[in-house]
Write a structure and sequence with these properties.
The protein has 15 helices and no strands. With 384 residues, the chain is mainly α.
Length: 384
């Protein structure tokens, strides 16, 4: 088949384009008719199951060859995929891993350096790394998850590449193309091995101190959301009344719904619970981070204390309670109406049953006495 393909010329491909119908018939016959024809022949001649399976597989031979051609991973394709993944990973994480290793003075990654940097942590280093990720407009958890997945994928491709390199080396024949491909694959595998150590080191660092980065991110989100309130709190530290008036303006500006104070305090409580939860789940005693988190918590609780004592908040609570009571009253009225409606339906059914019963008795008397039967017809009505 390779020899036949090598003899093809441009005119052969032109004929394919000029006669697409013939090509379509051939494709359908090869990849649809032949497998089903093999199955039909096996059924008609009632072949032994083993022979029947062989006939069907022969019919599927062309389809399997096509699938192998389309989805099979040749040496060149594996090299291209691995090279693309390596360069994309290198472009994305090379700068930050080099910066990280320079920051923590790591020149050779070994078990001693690993323990020194990861386990005997420096809060300043943690803060710098967290700030670096935050300033790159990345959330820490997705960033860490993406890095971990990339490292795992790069490891898997490295293992595939190494296996393919060993296979090529064991082959008996050697040619220029194979030699060049083998050299490129070996160079790529070595580059991955050298850089993968740094990626894994940085990924493990993020994983080991994930609770610190989660708390840092939570503080950052809260600081962005309540920046205006924190600035007011700093400017009016000794004037509770002035701060309360300014806070009222901020709340009404931020919340555009019917109950701005209630909505604002609900959101504030959610953020308070979130940062308290992050603080309580710290893996180590990060003194500086805990101190900053406590300051944020104290500020939020102070803001909440001012907001809940505002008369507008109390008015909203009463209005919301009245609205709730009105909804409950309407629900009770609707239930009563439904009960009355069901009761009326039941009484109507009772009337219908009584009328049918009287009609049956009248028919019985008419059959027994004929036209001389007494008139028992009555109009039945049950008052609703």
């Amino acid at each position: 088949m390779f020899g036949m393909g090598a003899t093809l010329t441009t005119s052969d491909f032109k004929r394919v384009l000029l006669r697409p119908r013939d090509v379509g018939v051939g494709v359908v016959a090869q990849y649809a008719v032949m497998p089903f024809l093999g199955f039909a022949l096996a059924k008609i001649f009632e072949l032994d199951p083993m022979l029947a399976a062989g006939v069907v597989l022969v019919g599927f031979g062309g389809l399997v060859a096509l699938a192998d051609w389309m989805f099979g991973e040749t040496d060149e394709r594996l090299f291209e995929k691995t090279d693309k993944l390596y360069h994309s990973t290198h472009a994305q994480y090379h700068a930050i891993t080099d910066w990280f290793e320079q920051l923590c003075h790591v020149y050779t990654i070994n078990p001693q350096e690993y323990d020194r940097v990861i386990r005997n942590f420096s809060e300043q280093l943690l803060y710098d790394v967290a700030t670096k990720i935050w300033c790159s407009n990345e959330y820490e958890a997705p960033y860490r998850s993406k890095l971990r997945a990339t490292v795992q994928q790069l490891r898997a491709y490295q293992a595939k590449l190494n296996k393919r390199i060993c296979k090529i080396r064991d082959q008996n024949y050697v040619n220029t193309h194979a030699d060049r491909l083998l050299h490129d694959m070996e160079s790529l595998e070595q580059s991955i091995q050298n850089k993968l150590v740094h990626f894994v080191f940085f990924s493990d660092y993020l994983e080991h101190h994930s609770s610190y980065f989660t708390l840092y991110e939570c503080e950052g989100i809260i600081n962005d959301e309540y920046q205006e309130e924190f600035e007011l709190l700093t400017n009016h530290t000794y004037s509770r009344y002035t701060f309360a008036q300014e806070l009222k303006y901020v709340i009404t500006k931020k919340q555009k719904d019917f109950y701005p104070y209630i909505t604002y305090i609900k959101q504030l409580n959610r953020q308070l619970n979130k940062i308290k939860n992050c603080k309580s789940h710290l893996a180590y005693n990060y003194v500086d981070r805990i101190s900053w988190a406590q300051k944020v918590i104290d500020s939020l609780e102070y803001i909440r204390g001012i907001a809940v004592t505002d008369p507008l908040y109390q008015q909203e609570l009463r209005a919301q309670e009245r609205e709730k009571l009105e909804r409950e009253r309407i629900s009770v009225v609707q239930q009563q109406t439904l009960i009355e409606k069901n009761k009326a339906n039941l009484l109507e059914k009772q009337n219908q049953l009584l009328e049918r019963e009287l009609a049956l008795k009248e028919e019985e008397l008419r059959e027994k006495y004929g036209d001389q039967s007494p008139n028992i017809h009555a109009h039945v009505t049950i008052q609703l």
